[in-house]
Amino acid sequence: xxxxxxxxxxxxxxxxxxxxxxxxxxxxxxxxxxxxxxxxxxxxxxxxxxxxxxxxxxxxxxxxxxxxxxxxxxxxxxxxxxxxxxxxxxxxxxxxxxxxxxxxxxxxxxxxxxxxxxxxxxxxxxxxxxxxxxxxxxxxxxxxxxxxxxxxxxxxx
Length: 157
Description:
8 helices, elongated, mainly alpha
């Protein structure tokens, strides 16, 4: 990041969150927000910082959405293998996809109890993320689909 003032940094943050430039300038404390917004947006450093912050936020949103996608649609076969295999090496366990597991307990008799995250809640959260823009498909929903496609392609390789 370049040498932006605290007000400029705040302006960039508000813009990256989707605020209109005039509103971002007002929230950042500029006395004449309309004039300030125009002036700020002409600066190369400001535009670069807004782009960087927007990209960072979108990447974080995508990671969150992909986590919910894995909870909602992830495979549990490795968890079943874990339950029924008597002898597993640490190396074998490290290769397992146990993302959907919320809790593992070994009972006194040696039995294993596995609890999974709630798929229905994950689906509901995905739905709320996909309709975050008042019922219309959001860019987050498109990002989830793109990420899911990439995961499928990676798995098929």
